[in-house]
Design a protein that fits this description.
heterodimer; A: 111 residues; mainly beta; 6-stranded mixed sheet; 5-stranded antiparallel sheet; 0% helix; B: 112 residues; 7-stranded mixed sheet; 4-stranded antiparallel sheet
């Protein structure tokens, strides 16, 4: 099973701070995806990274795929309370079809 | 607006009951998936279907079955509900392998 380890597990910061969360594996992935989940809702896709070394930006969110395609990071600049949620990384698992998910980083941004 | 709709947001069932969780997508997606989400364990794959009438076991299929008679509908069946099946159940669909998932809002099932 291709495991995805996310760190930190929990993060509580104040509005305006910057933060980075990590997604690591010993396996190589053809692509990785990042999702955000708000309480009581399903996860929502933020981005897919495909190429080793790739950097994608989504407003204040910057996603990077490691050169070896084994890890990824999400950096948030000037966090806002609306960024609060559970951030999940995911990659295609052994089935070749379904995604394996990391356990997530729970982010709380307070005003 | 494209959607994955799960039939119930909250369900309470008794131990031993047969439980049906329904999921419908309106995006003509090929692939559909059922996960359960538990604190400390994350999302775990129960079953998936890459096409109509096709189904594959995920990581934790024991105690569950699925049905996909039509492309838009993927049902999860708990044959005899047990308390350890109390969980948040998430359905997702996907156009095909390179694409991301669209999730439903989830069904929070409590088995008493």
């Amino acid at each position: 099973t291709q495991l995805l380890e996310q760190s930190p597990q929990f993060l509580s910061i104040q509005e305006g701070e910057n933060l980075t969360v990590y997604c690591n594996s010993s396996s190589v992935f053809s692509s990785l995806q990042w999702y955000r989940q708000e309480p009581g809702e399903g996860p929502v896709l933020l981005v897919t990274v495909v190429t080793g070394g790739e950097v994608k930006k989504l407003k204040r969110l910057t996603f990077q795929f490691g050169d070896a395609r084994k890890d990824s990071s999400l950096h948030i600049t000037a966090a806002q309370p609306g960024d609060t949620g559970l951030y999940l990384c995911a990659g295609v698992g052994d089935s070749g079809y379904a995604l394996n998910f990391g356990k997530g980083t729970s982010l709380l941004v307070t005003p | 607006d494209v959607k994955v709709t799960q039939s119930s947001r909250y369900l309470v069932k008794r131990t031993g009951e047969k439980v049906f969780l329904e999921c419908v997508q309106d995006m003509d997606h090929e692939n559909m998936f059922w996960y359960r989400q538990d604190p400390g364990l994350g999302l775990r794959l129960i079953y998936f279907s890459y096409d109509v009438k096709m189904k594959e076991k995920g990581d934790i299929p024991e105690g569950y079955s699925v049905s996909r008679e039509k492309k838009e509908r993927f049902s999860l069946i708990l044959e005899s509900a047990s308390t350890n099946q109390t969980s948040m159940y998430l359905c997702a669909s996907r156009k095909g392998r390179p694409y991301g998932y669209t999730f439903g809002s989830g069904t929070r099932l409590t088995v008493v």
